[in-house]
Amino acid sequence: MRSRFEEHYVKSGRGGRKLDEVRDKYQKACRKLHLTHNEYVLLLCEAAEFEKDFRTVLLPGLLEYQQSVQEGFVVAWRQLLQDLAQHSDFTSEKYKDIHKRIDSSLDSIKHTEEYNDFTEKYKTNPTEAVKFSFDESLTEENAGKLLPNQLTVDNLTVEWLRTKLSDLETNIKDIQEKKSTFPPLSQEILHNGKSSTNDISASKSSLGDASKKEFNELKCQERKMLRQTELIKSALNELGCEEVPSGCDLSIDNQPFINNSNEQGDGPEPSLIKRALGHQKIVNLLKKPFRRKSEPSSPVAPPRTKGRRESTPHSDGSDPVALSSNKTLMDEEWFHGVLPREEVVRLLTQDGDFLVRETTRNDECQTVLSVCWGGHKHFIVQTTAEGLYRFEGPAFPSIRELILYQFNSGLAVTGRSGAILHKPIPRERWELNNDDVILLDKIGRGNFGDVYKAQLKSSNQDVAVKTCRVTLPEDHKKKFLQEGRILKQYDHPNIVKLIGICVQKQPIMIVMELVPGGSLLTYLRKNSAILTESQLMNMCLDASAGMRYLESKNCIHRDLAARNCLVGYANIVKISDFGMSREEEEYIVSDGMKQIPIKWTAPEALNFGKYTSLCDVWSYGILCWEIFSRGSTPYSGLSNSKAREKIDSGYRMPAPENIPDEMYRLMLRCWEYQPENRPNFEQIFTVVDTLCQAYKVSFL
Ligand code: ADP
User: Fold this and answer.
1) How far apart are alpha carbons 448 and 620 in whole angstroms?
2) Is 253 annotated to bind ligand?
3) Residue of the nearest CA to atom 12 in ligand 1?
């Protein structure tokens, strides 16, 4: 503005309007500049002052303020803590007073008094204590075997009892160990019955109570098990040297040896007797003792008087229980070898009857004295450390001497049994010595062992001998002898004949008549080309005659088939293999259907396990089919289950070639689904016999 003013001043020569204007503007600009300058100076002054104040007044003031705030807090906290300290002063009179009141209140709590009447006040009437008593009606049917409240120790239970005993003993030991880990305090509490009332034990009482409860529970368990242990131990100890008795008396179901063939046909049928007299009577009736023909008839049972003795004299007049001879136990007539217990029981019929036999238990051979004395008692001969033999009395160097001592002294074998030996029971005619038989050639192989052609030493008679493998378990050996037991009472040309059983030692054997043609099945196959229809008809007739006989004896064969028939001279067929047979009108299988010959078995036996002679009739139909098809396999090409299915849906095998129509019609009748629609063997025999006669006539 100044330079413009100077410019105009020069141009206009110090006057004029324009110059005034420029001078104004110049003056205004100067003024503005000077004012700004002044403002600036003032602001600088202010800033300098502020700066000075900031450092000397404001900043220190801020810190002072902070300090005063902190101090204020401290004062406040201090006040607070002071109040707290003041109010929580347990030494203050106020507190002392409160505590006194608390203490006196606590003192007035008496736990024994607080719940003084608790049980009386709150108890309800408990239900009556349950009396656990044995329901005696449960054992009525088994009277004699199972006694109320008494453990039964027999061959069925003894192992179980022993295991149970050892389990219990282990458990008791565990419990006793656990008990010993409890602190004595808790045990003391238990023993005293009450816990102490002093303060220390009261404060520990919750721990003590828990231990006490657990300890008590263990103690109860222990007591319970000890009681059971005692029961089992005393039951097992009761046995002493007696052999574990048989739990299942099979002697009722099995027929006795009948030595006099007259007895077979004359007496009433066993099943009829069973129905008329009831079981116990039939047992007695069937227990008629065997007497050799040369022997006197059965003496009256001796009274149970000490020392009374009687022996069945030998035919040579010698006393079978005389000690003088140099016999061994094996030589004694009353030594029966490994005769099964069921047979033994049947032989001993009167009090005082006795015999000696052998048995195997856990692979160990034991000698057993079996005595009839208010039932049957079996005593195992005990061996002393010195190798002597004894029961409860004195020991002897040989078992024979021990038995003779028992017999001659008339003393009871054991105190518990009171059994006295009155009469030695000699071996039966059927009980052959193993050494009486000379095995020659092996002629077959059975389920239990090999079959041999053999010779009887005494008569040079050719025989067939079925042997039972030594390694088979005891129950298999019993099953093996079952065949002998059944066969020994039968006498019919079409039933294979039993000569005897060898049970003197292992292997046990069944001696039978030798049927030279061997198995019918093999015979049919071997001779299929040469067998005539007439011969085949006669085979069917033989089989029906044998089966008619069995039917009349109430014997169900259950395994009739060509493989189980034998062929003798002149093609005579004999029914054999009675291993599955049962002597009953009706037999219900309860132990599963193991090894059932499905294709030979009637539907009701397969479906419901129900066997009657009419089941044998079904099998007879199959047997005739096998005969006429010359040893073919029935339902060939069909599995067992498929064959069964087809039969259930009505299928029947077609007629074999060249079979007479009547014979096939008879077969179809044998295969009627409902057993009651089948003919019985009496009727079958009549039909086949008539057919055979007609055949002969037409052939002639
Ligand atoms: P298992 O009943 O143990 O099966 P078997 O009775 O079937 O034994 O006999 C097996 C084989 O021994 C028969 O197939 C037959 O060849 C032969 N056999 C059995 N008994 C006699 C006998 N009395 N006479 C001739 N051979 C026999």
Assistant:
1) 25
2) no
3) 444
The domain made up of 239-255+273-293+328-424 has a fold known as SHC Adaptor Protein (3.30.505)
Interval between CA 579 and ligand 1 midpoint (Å): 11
The atom of ligand 1 lying closest to the CA of 516 is: 25
Spatial contact of 389 and 402, defined as CB atoms under 8 Å apart: yes
CATH 3.30.200.20 fits 431-513, yes or no: yes
Region(s) of the chain under CATH 3.30.505.10: 239-255+273-293+328-424
Mean pLDDT of the chain: 81
Dist. CA 519–CA 563, nearest whole Å: 6
Q: For residue 622, give the amino acid letter.
A: I
Distance 643 CA to ligand 1 centre (A): 27
User: Which tens digit of pLDDT belongs to each residue from 421-471?
Assistant: 999 999 888 888 888 899 999 998 888 899 999 999 989 999 999 999 988
Fold of 520-699: Transferase(Phosphotransferase); domain 1 (1.10.510)
Name the catalytic one among 351, 353, 542, 559.
559
Helices (H) then strands (E): counts for the chain: 23, 18
Catalytic (active site) residue 97:
no
Report the pocket of ligand 1 as residue ranges, CB < 6 Å.
443-448, 451, 464, 496, 512-515, 518-519, 564, 566, 576-577, 579
Mark residue 394 as left, alpha or beta (left: phi above 0; alpha: psi -120 to 50; beta: remaining).
beta
- 579 CA: nearest ligand 1 atom: 2
465 annotated as belonging to a binding site for a ligand:
no
Strands of the 423-424 sheet, one edge to the other: 376-380, 364-372, 353-361, 423-424
pTM across the whole model: 0.57
Cβ 232 vs Cβ 164: under 8 Å: yes
The burial class, CB within 10 Å (0-12 / 13-18 / 19+), for 91 is: exposed
Q: Among residues 611, 631, 615, 645, which one has the least CA distance to residue 536?
A: 631
- The CATH 3.30.200.20 portion of the chain extends over 431-513
pLDDT range class, residue 322, cuts 50, 70, 90: low
Q: Name the residue with the closest Cα to ligand 1, atom 6.
A: 577
Per the annotation, does 451 bind a ligand?
A: yes
Please name the helix (run of DSSP H) or strand (run of DSSP E) that holds residue 372, with its range, or none.
strand 364-372
Measured between alpha carbons, how far is 561 from 545 in angstroms, rounded to an integer? 15
Residue 245: what are its φ and ψ, rounded to 5°? -70, 160
Number of alpha carbons in the 13 Å side-chain half-sphere of residue 255: 25
Ligand 1: distance of its center to the CA of 452 in Å? 9
Q: Does 446 count as an annotated binding residue?
A: yes
